[in-house]
Amino acid sequence: MLLSVRRVRQERVFKVLVYDLGMEDRTRRELERRFAFAEFRTFDFATCPPFPGDPKRCLSSYAWKPVIVAQLMQTAKMPVVWADSATVVVQPLDPVLEFIRTTGLYTPRAGCGVLKLRTHPDTFRLLKASEAVRAERQVAGAFFGFDPDSTLARSITREWAECCAREACLAPPGSDTDNHRFDQAILSVLVLTKAEPSSLTHDEVDQSSIRPIPYLYTRRKVKEWVPLTADPLLRLYYSVRRWLWLGLFRLLWRSSRLRRLLSTGDLRQMLAPQPVRWVGDFASIQKPVRRSKRPSRPM
How far apart are CA 59 and CA 134, in angstroms? Predict the structure, then answer.
C-alpha cells in the first residue's frame, strides 16, 4: 500500500497516517525508514470499547476502526479517507476528494450480498433499520471517506462509534463472520438510513463487481514473509488475477438468471445445498398392484 501511495505521489496530496495494530518492532522500523512521509501511530487498545484492554476481541470485531475514524473526524482539517492496508492505489484519488467535498461523504458499494444476509437481526433492531435498507447492498468497509465539515458525515461517524461501543450492537450473541459484518454492517445501515440518495455514489470497489472503480484495488493481501523487493511480481500476479476474475464474472453476468439472483441475494445462498422438502399427503397414495413376472400361458 505505501509503495503504491508513493508511486502515484499521493503523499503530496494527503497526510498519510499508519495505525499500528500489532506490528513487530523490526517491521515497523523498516517501514518507517523506507516511507518517511508516513506518520506511524500505535493504537491504544485501552480505548477500544466494548472490549477495552482485550486486543483479540477488539481486532476480531473491528471495533478499532470506528474509534480511529471518530477521533480523526474531531481533529482533521481536510477530508478523512480510510483505506485498509490491503489497498493498492493505482490512480490519483482526486475524483474521490471532489465527491467528498461536494456531498460530505464517499461510500462505494462492496460485494453482491445484501445487508439482510450480512447483518445480525439484533443490530437491525437496535438501529431501527427499515425493510428497504435491509434489502440494500452493503457499503465498502475497506475504503471510504468523510468530510469533517459536513454535519451529515459527523453524525454518521459519531453514531457509528457509539453503536460499535456497545457489544449488543457491534457483536450480538450468535454473530459471526457468516451472518454479520460487525463495523461494516453498522456503517452500511447508518449511511443508507441517514444519507439522501443524491449524496451516495454509484461507485463499486473490486469485490464481485463488473464495473469497479479504477482508482484502487482492495484485498491485496501479502504474507508477511514476502520481501518488499517482490513488489513487481506481486503487482503482475494481482493484475492477471483481477483481469481473469473480471472476465469470468462479466461472462456469467450475461445470464439473466444469475443477474437476477445476485441483485436480490448472496451468491452463496444460491450455491448452498438446500434441504429437501416434501409436499403432499402420503396417506392418500395407494400402493400399486404388483404384477407377476411369469409370462402368461398361451391359450
Answer: 26
